[in-house]
Backbone:
C-alpha cells in the first residue's frame, strides 16, 4: 500500500498534466463576423467576415493568420461619391491567459487593401503594410471556443467581431 499510493498519485498527476497540455496547444481554425469602422465621416461602416488559422504553441503563446473581407460601403467626400471595400491579411503572435474564460492579445503585421469604386474609370486601389494589434475576450469550451475581439487595423480603421473557433 505504501508504494501503491505514491505510484497512483504520480499517475493521476501525469494524466492530468497531459490533458492540460493537450488542451492548451495545437492547431485551430475559426470564422468571425463583425463591423469594420472607418473613423472618417465620409465613409460608412461596413460588415466584414474573416477566417483565422492558428497554432497554440503552449498555454500562453500562439501564432495566427487572419483573412478579413468587408462588404461594399458608401462614401461621400465633397464632390466624390462611390463605394469602397477593405480586405486585410494579417500574421499575429498571440498571448492568451489560460483557463476557460480568457483574455487574448495579438500583435503583428497586416496588409490592408482599400478598393474605391467611383462608377467611372477613375477607380482606386490602395495597399498598405503596417503593424496591427488586437484584444479579445473568450470562452473555451473544450474543442470549441468563442471570442469577441477588437482590432486596430490602422490609425483610422478598426474591426469589432465575434468568432467561433474549432481546436484540433
Residues:
Amino acid at each position: 500500500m505504501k508504494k501503491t499510493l505514491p505510484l497512483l498519485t504520480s499517475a493521476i498527476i501525469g494524466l492530468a498534466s497531459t490533458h492540460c497540455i493537450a488542451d492548451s496547444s495545437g492547431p485551430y481554425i475559426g470564422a468571425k463576423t463583425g463591423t469594420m469602422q472607418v473613423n472618417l465621416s465620409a465613409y460608412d461602416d461596413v460588415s466584414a467576415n474573416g477566417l483565422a488559422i492558428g497554432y497554440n504553441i503552449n498555454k500562453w503563446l500562439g501564432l495566427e493568420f487572419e483573412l478579413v473581407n468587408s462588404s461594399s460601403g458608401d462614401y461621400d467626400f465633397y464632390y466624390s461619391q462611390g463605394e469602397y471595400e477593405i480586405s486585410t491579411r494579417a500574421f499575429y503572435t498571440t498571448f492568451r491567459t489560460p483557463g476557460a474564460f480568457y483574455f487574448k492579445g495579438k500583435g503583428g503585421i497586416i496588409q490592408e487593401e482599400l478598393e474605391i469604386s467611383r462608377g467611372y474609370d477613375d477607380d482606386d486601389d490602395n495597399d498598405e503594410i503596417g503593424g496591427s494589434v488586437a484584444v479579445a475576450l473568450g470562452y473555451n469550451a473544450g474543442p470549441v471556443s468563442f471570442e469577441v475581439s477588437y482590432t486596430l487595423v490602422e490609425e483610422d480603421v478598426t474591426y469589432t467581431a465575434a468568432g467561433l473557433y474549432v481546436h484540433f
